[in-house]
Amino acid sequence: MSKCIENDHLLMSKAVREWYRHYEVEWDDQASSFLCDAAIELYNEGCRSVEEMATVLIGTYVGLAATRVNAPSSSSMH
Questions:
Q1: From first to last of its 78 residues, what are the pLDDT tens digits of the chain?
Q2: Does residue 38 contact residue 61 with C-beta atoms inside 8 Å?
């Protein structure tokens, strides 16, 4: 794996870990898969910092229930 791709994966991984720290929840495979997909989407939209990505994840997916496939996102609730 190239160094650039490794750094991109590290950025997204750190942002997801910040989400876990913020909400103080235990590791959850389903949530992690969902959050990683969301992080990839943010990255593809141009988000390139851990802080920005973590802030968006934390603000959009409020708690573990928000990471469930059928759960409404905060944007759909407004």
A1: 677 788 899 999 999 999 999 999 999 999 999 999 999 999 999 999 999 999 999 999 999 999 986 645 545 443
A2: yes
Residue 51 lies in domain: 2-60
Please, which contacts does 37-43 make with residues 24 or more away whose CB atoms are closer than 8 Å? 39/12, 39/15, 40/12, 42/15, 43/8, 43/11, 43/12
65 part of a folded domain: no
- pTM beyond 0.85: no
54, two tokens: 């973590």
Structural domains in the chain (count)? 1
Residue listed under structure tokens 């959009």: 60
